[in-house]
Amino acid sequence: MRQAVTVGALEIHYQPLVSLRTGEVTGAESLLRWRHPDIGLMVPGQFLSLAKGVGLMPAHRPLGNAAGSPPRRPVAAAGRANLRLCVNVGKTERHDCGYFELMERFLVETGLPAGVIGLEVPEALAMDNVQATLRGFKMARCLCCRIALDEFGAGRTDFRILRRTPADVLKIAGEFIRDVA
């Protein structure tokens, strides 16, 4: 795992976001993957607990930085084409005011319009520490970032807290609605 961070085996993949109304691509979600030499391409659920176990999260933050930092070239291309790039926010970034300052500096340096970056926060993380989540959302709002509450219904769903959460997008977990007629 440590070697993967240093040799660049962590990759960002992009999943297109498509408007159901028009069928047009409106943006992309950046997704962290680990290209393991023996196993192949791994999703975060397969390696994040290992990263925490060997001390790469949150103390040293290389994974958090790789996953949560807006990649410059794709964001610049997206912003100029009026597309949004969504990045996943983990526990490390949610508690780190410096993360939002870094994002603000990035937007200023690139001259991109406000609202190019969207933040995806898993419901379980949002409900883990509601006050920290609300502080992070407030900082994100100052940058005009769109906020998506991800995997809603997969964790400790609390509709009272949902009402206080200034999310623009609610991404409902598949298992929450799978058997709905």
CATH architecture: Alpha-Beta Barrel
What is the CATH third-level topology name?
A: TIM Barrel
Q: Helix coverage percent of residues? A: 40-55%
Distance between the termini: 43 Å
The top level CATH class name: Alpha Beta
Structure keywords:
single chain, 181 residues, alpha/beta, TIM Barrel
Description of the molecule:
Helix content is 44%, strand content 25%. It has 10 helices and 7 strands. Strands 1, 2, 3, 4, 5, 6 and 7 form a 7-stranded mixed β-sheet that branches. A hairpin with a 3-residue loop joins strand 2 and strand 3 (40-42). The radius of gyration is 16 Å and the shape is globular. Residues 58-68 have low confidence and may be disordered.
Briefly summarize what is shown:
The protein is an alpha/beta fold and 181 residues long. The protein has helices at 2-7, 44-53, 62-68, 72-80, 91-95, 97-110, 123-128, 130-142, 159-164, 174-177, and strands at residues 10-18, 25-36, 40-42, 84-88, 117-122, 146-152, 169-172.
Chart the SSEs and their pairings.
Blueprint: H1 2-7, E1 10-18, E2 25-36, E3 40-42, H2 44-53, H3 62-68, H4 72-80, E4 84-88, H5 91-95, H6 97-110, E5 117-122, H7 123-128, H8 130-142, E6 146-152, H9 159-164, E7 169-172, H10 174-177
Parallel strand pairs: 2-4, 4-5, 5-6, 6-7
Antiparallel strand pairs: 1-2, 2-3
